[in-house]
Amino acid sequence: MTKTIFKLGLAAFALGFAGQALAYAQLKSAISADKSTIKSSPGELDLTFTEGLNLKFSGIKVTGPDKASIKLDDPMLKQSDTVLMVPLSGMLGAGTYTVEWHALSTDGHKTNGSYTFTVKP
């Protein structure tokens, strides 16, 4: 009986942590999308998250094929604070670009990640 109660308590504990992990702002989709190939330089990158973001502590860094940082304009939030829109300052040439993102959800949880896309005119 004690083993069963212990196992049930452990399972409940694990499920509680799994629920918290799902509550963090995760990247849901992006334009330009992960591993996509696009025909021309985008004017902006739109990252959609599963939760609202705190703009002051959320952002991206974009590096080009030569590993140099790409100049970005000031980001803004759209659509109930779940879409981080970041304008690009200039045109992107052909090559693969890496987007590193970091986000602070409105409930105070931090997440980060990265993805790539390719410009192939």
UniProtKB/TrEMBL annotation:
- Quick check: keyword Chloroplast in the entry? no
Q: Which Pfam families match?
A: CopC
Task: Give the residue range of the signal peptide.
Answer: 1-23
Q: In what residue span(s) does the CopC domain sit?
A: 25-119
Q: Which InterPro entries match?
A: CopC-like, CopC/D, CopC_dom, Cu-Rt/internalin_Ig-like, Ig_E-set
Presence of the UniProt keyword Lyase in the record: no
Q: Per its UniProt record, what SUPFAM superfamilies does this chain match? A: E set domains (SSF81296)
Q: Which Gene3D superfamilies match?
A: 2.60.40.1220
Which keywords appear in this protein's UniProt record, sorted alphabetically? Copper, Metal-binding, Periplasm, Signal
Q: Where in the cell is it found?
A: Periplasm
- Its domain of life reads Bacteria
Q: What is its main location?
A: periplasm
Give the family from UniProt.
Answer: Belongs to the CopC family.
Q: Could you identify this protein by its name?
A: Copper homeostasis periplasmic binding protein CopC
Q: Which organism is it from?
A: Rhizobium calliandrae
Identify the gene encoding this protein. copC
